[in-house]
Amino acid sequence: MFEDKNYEQMHLEKKIDELTKKLDEVTSKLDHLERRTYQNRGSIGNSIWVLVPVTAIIMWGLREIFAR
């Protein structure tokens, strides 16, 4: 009977260790995804600053073409 409880406790500890490892892996993957998300946000902001003047120049050119 004592051995059964000891075995159960060892089995539970093993399962807890496995779950802890899995949780660490998931946390690591989540951190990686969050870092990638924050890195990509900066590049989108830079693209906007390029697209706004280009769009304005195109609109100005089209207005000049169709005004005639």
Automatic annotation (TrEMBL):
Organism: Gottfriedia endophytica
Name used for this protein in its record: Uncharacterized protein
Chain ranges passing through the membrane: 44-62
Highest taxon in the source lineage: Bacteria
Ranges in a coiled coil: 9-36
UniProt keyword annotations, A-Z: Coiled coil, Membrane, Transmembrane, Transmembrane helix
Keyword Coiled coil: yes
